[in-house]
Specification:
mainly alpha, 98 residues, single chain, 0% strand
Length: 98
């Protein structure tokens, strides 16, 4: 259902092109901050941090930050990490919990 709704939104509102801004991606039902950042970093090579539950928890457990939500974690990690590591931080931390 969400894939159909997202596809319809992209076709109708964005002329069939996946939008390249977070503001427009968040207008698509089913896309939140994490997904928007993932799309921007992978599809558009924009420097973003994709914070999922794992990145949020591990960053806090390592003592890098002290935050309560993934949104806060994203903001704090952007202050802490050089931009060159923003895209890959998710890939580096997620395997630690598997």
């Amino acid at each position: 259902r969400y894939i159909k709704e997202a596809s319809t939104c992209i076709i109708e509102e964005f002329k069939g092109r996946v939008p390249g801004t977070k503001e427009n991606l968040l207008k698509i039902k089913g896309i939140g901050n994490k997904c928007a950042n993932l799309i921007l970093s992978i599809a558009f090579a924009q420097k973003e941090i994709c914070v999922d539950t794992h990145v949020h928890r591990i960053s806090n457990r390592l003592g890098w930050i002290s935050t309560k939500t993934p949104e806060q974690t994203e903001k704090e990690l952007k202050k802490l990490l050089p931009r060159e590591y923003w895209i890959e931080i998710n890939d580096l931390l997620v395997p630690l919990v598997q």
